[in-house]
Amino acid sequence: MRRRVCAAGGCQWFIAKPDARLRSGIGAYRGFRSTAGLPQERLVVPSGRVSLLIGFGGEMRLGRTGRRASGTPAPAPVHTSVVSGLHTRARVLGHQGDLHGVELSLAPWAAYRLLGASLGELADTVTDPADVLGGRVRDLGAALEAAPGWRERFALLDEALLRWTAQAEPSHEPSPAVLEAWRLLDRTGGALPIGELAARTGWSLRHLENRFREQIGLTPKRLARILRLNRAIRLLDTGATATDVAVACGFYDQAHLSREFTAMTSMPPGRFLAARGEASAWLAG
Length: 285
What we know:
Elements lengths: L1 E4 L5 E6 L12 E7 L4 E5 L5 E8 L2 E3 L3 E2 L5 E2 L3 E2 L2 E3 L6 E5 L2 E9 L1 H8 L10 E2 L2 H4 L1 H12 L3 H17 L9 H12 L6 H8 L3 H11 L4 H18 L4 H8 L4 H12 L3 H10 L7
Antiparallel strand pairs: 1-2, 2-3, 3-12, 4-11, 5-10, 5-12, 6-9, 6-11, 7-8, 10-13
Helix pairs in contact: 3-4, 5-6, 5-8, 8-9, 8-10
Protein name: Helix-turn-helix domain-containing protein
Pfam family, one: HTH_18
Keywords: DNA-binding, Transcription, Transcription regulation
């Protein structure tokens, strides 16, 4: 287990790998505790993963506060725990300064198996995990909160996720063809042409799109855009120029790269990197 403290202070992360039997579909467990005492926000970019966040205390606000027709503030939706399907545009998460919980990042095919629901219905949505997983996620949240420390919490997560996987309905086992198509897109950072992807499955493009939408959450083309954006962000983080990144990631040119950034994050690459660097780090983006 690793412990990290936010550069700005007031927040800690506790990070550990799940049980080896879960690692193909579930990323590192990320426990977090924020005691900053001041409202914080973070822009969360599309990642091509399903996020399950179980909160022990504090509330998260989804989106910035808007305005009603009368001009009075319209509060953003508030949750203690959330499950977020694949999303195609960045969203804002905020809290009032005190937050405690754990986040899991799931490959979409693993989420399809665990959640027992069509991922197409969860795409571009954020909902209470109990709406999908029922009372068992509330029981798990209560057990995690009561545990004496993070090692014990991560052990409880292993136990619960292994049990839920074993209890998954056979009808929610991802199709081998969909699973291979997802792996090809993920491995190539979204660079594989969709026509070639369909040919490798032996399915028509329409059939692949329908099965992909059900078991992954989006069509292959929309997922490829997200994976390509994430690869571009990683390369830009290393100091690569926008021109070099555009070539490496398969964009037509730097202008195309900028348009994709703006479409999915509402800002061009340079502004996005600057804004992310200034953002609070209470939760992974």
